[in-house]
Specification:
Blueprint: E1 2-8, E2 10-11, E3 14-20, E4 30-31, E5 34-36, H1 44-56, E6 59-71, E7 74-85, E8 95-101, H2 103-108, H3 115-133
Parallel strand pairs: 1-7
Antiparallel strand pairs: 1-5, 2-3, 3-4, 3-8, 6-7
Amino acid sequence: MVEAVWAIVRQENRFLLAQKSVVSNISGAWMFPCGEVDPTKSTHIDAASRVLEEEVGLKGEQFKKLCILHMDQYRISVFLCGNWSGGLKPTHRDIIGIGWFAISEMHSLNQSLSPFVNSSLSYLSYLVQHYDHNPDQWKE
């Protein structure tokens, strides 16, 4: 099982997605900033912070775990970034685009949206709304 993280960043009701390059194994797909975790070298929160900076140039703080997803050989810890700063720009060779998307716009990306994100989008949207209304229930 490969350990991975997604770093979800939002600005009001829009979420940050990065588009992978054509040389990546998921060429052209839009997805949340993501990366693998080596648990012997860093925590999952440290990995979420690292991928956010490495892929889109943002420094993230106040990460809260939304959930853990199991997809294929991946175990993905999903974190919502509560505070971020920095200049938004593709900073990794595998990132060719960055954009802010409402949930409805993500659905309209169809084939361009990563299958992992597409299959979990409704669930993630529900969790974000739930924790917005019940902040005392965040998982640490």
